[in-house]
Design goal:
The longest helix is centred in the first third of the chain and has 12 residues, at 27-38. The chain has a 7-stranded antiparallel β-sheet with strand order 1-11-8-15-6-3-2. It is built from 6 helices and 16 strands. It has helices at 3-9, 27-38, 72-75, 78-84, 168-173, 194-197; strands at residues 18-21, 45-47, 52-56, 60-61, 64-67, 99-105, 111-114, 123-129, 133-139, 154-158, 163-167, 174-178, 183-184, 209-210, 214-220, 225-227. The chain has one domain: Alpha-ketoglutarate-dependent dioxygenase AlkB-like (Jelly Rolls). The chain is α+β, with helices and mostly antiparallel strands and 237 residues long. It binds 2-oxoglutaric acid (AKG). 2-oxoglutaric acid is lined by residues 101, 103, 111, 116, 126, 135, 176, 216, 218.
Length: 237
């Protein structure tokens, strides 16, 4: 993969900037990553109402993170992120992501439209495992009270093994969310990347796409980090 790969992955019909790269990882890598996620110690999972998640790199509190190193199976993406310049120029100190939130969604689960908080540099790189989802985007001012049922301005079909990168305007001025449904009708929601997701020799299915359990690895840079021992009392003299 080269810098050209990400340039070609940019969706010209989306607001600046959405990059979508299908088959970013191989099926073998995908399976290894699924095994790593599922073999994490039980307390690593945080159970929410509509999904469960793992936090790697440290917990973000008040826009800062008590940092701990990411494990090798998550830093293994760094050479590819550097080659594609995904996090290039964002931070003078952190050249690679230092935080990864892993989400697991069962069919019928999702995430309400939201904006990633100010604790992060405005770039998120998502590697998807096991199943697809449709990520929906809403302009801030468009958002009604009924966040669950609002029609998106546009959507992206996020396939397993793909890389999705959100930056700039789309990161700063749009909310994103995943509807809590068991299947996705690809003719709805103004999906902007169907031509990338389904090349001519593999056309998009007409019937709704059934969801399976999906795992997403969302990589970000938290610029403000605190070393863990900062909270420890100084040694007695
Ligand atoms: O699972 C995804 O692809 C989206 C996750 C997300 O929106 C988030 O972690 O803020």
């Amino acid at each position: 993969m080269t810098r050209d790969t990400i340039t070609k992955g940019r969706l010209p019909n989306a607001p600046a900037s959405v990059y979508y790269i299908p088959d970013f990882i191989s099926s073998e890598e995908e399976q290894n990553l699924i095994n790593k996620v599922l073999s994490a110690p039980k307390p690593k999972w945080v159970h929410l109402k509509n999904r469960r998640l793992q936090n790697w790199g440290g917990v973000v509190v008040n826009n800062a993170m008590v940092a701990e190193p990411l494990p090798p199976w998550l830093t293994s993406f760094n050479p590819r992120f550097r080659e594609l310049e995904v996090f290039e120029g964002l931070d003078p100190i952190h050249k690679d992501p230092n935080h990864c939130l892993i989400n697991e969604y069962l069919p019928g689960q999702g995430i309400l439209p939201h904006k990633d908080g100010p604790a992060y540099h405005p770039t998120v790189a998502t590697v998807s495992l096991s199943s697809h989802c449709v990520l929906e985007f809403f302009k801030f001012s468009d958002l009604s009270e009924d966040r669950k049922n609002q029609e998106p301005e546009f959507s992206i079909l996020v396939q397993p093994r793909s890389l999705l990168v959100l930056k700039e305007d789309v990161y700063n001025h749009y909310m994103h969310g995943i509807r809590e449904v068991h299947s996705d009708n690809l003719t709805e929601g103004n999906i902007l990347n169907l031509d990338r997701a389904f090349p001519p020799n593999n056309p998009a299915p007409i019937s709704p796409l059934q969801r399976d359990t999906r795992i997403s690895l969302t990589f970000r840079i938290v610029p403000k980090t605190i070393r863990g021992n900062r909270f420890l009392a100084p040694p007695k003299k």
